[in-house]
């Protein structure tokens, strides 16, 4: 056997590679459904590389200088076919997976956009409905109040209790509407704060004086432990009042007997407000869900008091927006609960 010149070898390789390239592009066009833009150049280049190796290896086998070398080159050629085919298969599989992932990501993006649209529509609906309901509810509360105050003549004794019931339900409804509106604002990132310097000691004192009447009515003992001096924080007064009273409202709602205590403390950095009740308590495994939207725990369902599970969600949002934290501690069912708030002090 005579060995070929380098030029002959090169010529054969180039020619075969050229034909192979055309063949590969033709095959891949079929795979890409005749769309030249969908051609995968990664696979074409891998196929070309593999074909070049095969061609070189086959040529070397043909032009081997001895039978032994021919056997060896043939074995190498067969090995290159096996590895080449498996390499092409792997790359094809990878491209297919990549395409599937891209399609899934695309679908997810479409679904996500749709969900966002629906969420916006839902928020707009809640906001609109709540605003529409506000007027009638305010009228109901207002007129019930006026009637109870005898503004329309002396109210017969037996009508007082139903009227008070109307007034009370109106207040519950109006709080619920405000909660809905707050949630919409939170979701839109629209909850606004008017920050000022507030004396927390005085605020808690005022809250206690207001709540002591409600507590007494339920036969509960409301106590507090406050420092002698003022403690100042920078916050939205109305919103912090709302957050603290949300917790107190719950303590009253979920405590049948015993006491509720408010303890105020501070160190150099923070103010700490702990509100403890001797109420129905909270199962350990449910404590993580307490601050989530529309989450009413099994304890609330058992005793069937009114509520929609928004108060603590809003409270947490308010406290965290002021750079603070809120958490709950309870030893479990029937063992009472402590809600702990901390917030940064004015330096
Ligand atoms: P709501 O009271 O309207 O249901 P909240 O967001 O204020 O909603 O509270 C969420 C849930 O946390 C309540 O449904 C109740 O299960 C539980 N919870 C809140 N405060 C207390 C408390 N002081 N004692 C026991 N459970 C409580």
In short:
The chain is of the alpha+beta class and 347 residues long.
Separation of the first and last Cα atoms:
96 Å
* Residue runs with pLDDT of under 50 for 5 or more positions: none
Radius of gyration: 38 Å
Small-molecule components bound: adenosine-5'-diphosphate
How would you describe the overall organization of this protein?
By secondary structure, the protein is of the alpha+beta class. It folds into 2 domains: 107 residues; 150 residues, Heat Shock Protein 90. 62% of the residues lie in helices and 13% in strands. It contains 8 helices and 7 strands, in the order ααααβαββαββααββ. A 5-stranded mixed sheet has the order 2-4-5-7-6. Strands 1-3 form a two-stranded antiparallel ribbon. A hairpin with a 3-residue loop joins strand 4 and strand 5. Helix 1 packs antiparallel against helix 2 and helix 4 packs across helix 8. It is elongated. The protein starts with 5 loop residues before the first helix and ends with a strand. The model has no long low-confidence stretch (mean pLDDT 90). The site of adenosine-5'-diphosphate has 21 residues, from helix 6, helix 7 and helix 8.
List keywords for this structure.
347 residues, alpha+beta, two-stranded antiparallel ribbon, 8 helices, binds adenosine-5'-diphosphate
């Amino acid at each position: 056997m005579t060995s070929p010149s380098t030029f002959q070898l090169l010529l054969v390789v180039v020619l075969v590679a050229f034909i192979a390239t055309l063949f590969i592009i033709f095959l891949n066009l079929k795979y890409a459904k005749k769309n030249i833009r969908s051609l995968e150049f990664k696979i074409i280049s891998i196929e070309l590389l593999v074909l070049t190796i095969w061609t070189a290896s086959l040529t070397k086998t043909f032009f081997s200088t001895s039978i032994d070398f021919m056997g060896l080159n043939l074995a190498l050629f067969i090995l290159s076919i096996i590895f080449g085919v498996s390499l092409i298969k792997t790359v094809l599989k990878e491209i297919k997976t990549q395409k599937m992932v891209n399609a899934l990501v695309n679908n997810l993006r479409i679904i996500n956009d749709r969900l966002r649209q629906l969420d916006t529509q839902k928020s707009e609906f809640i906001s609109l409905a709540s605003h529409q309901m506000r007027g009638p509810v305010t009228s109901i509360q207002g007129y019930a109040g006026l009637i109870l105050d005898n503004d329309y003549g002396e109210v017969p004794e037996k009508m007082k209790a139903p009227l008070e019931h109307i007034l009370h339900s109106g207040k519950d409804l109006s709080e619920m509407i405000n909660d809905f509106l707050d949630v919409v604002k939170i979701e839109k990132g629209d909850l606004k704060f008017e920050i000022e310097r507030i004396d927390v000691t005085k605020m808690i004192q005022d809250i206690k004086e207001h709540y002591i009447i409600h507590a007494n009515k339920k036969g509960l003992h409301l106590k507090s432990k406050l420092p002698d001096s003022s403690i100042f924080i920078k916050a939205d007064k109305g919103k912090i009042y709302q957050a603290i009273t949300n917790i107190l409202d719950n303590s009253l709602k979920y405590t049948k007997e015993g006491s509720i205590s408010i303890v105020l403390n501070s160190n150099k950095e923070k103010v700490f407000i702990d509100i403890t009740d001797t109420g129905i308590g909270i199962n350990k495994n449910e404590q993580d869900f307490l601050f989530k939207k529309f989450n009413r725990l099994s304890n609330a369902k058992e005793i069937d008091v009114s509520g929609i599970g928004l108060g603590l969600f809003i409270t947490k949002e308010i406290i965290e927006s002021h750079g603070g934290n809120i958490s709950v501690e309870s030893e479990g069912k029937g063992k009472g609960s402590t809600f702990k708030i901390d917030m940064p002090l004015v330096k």
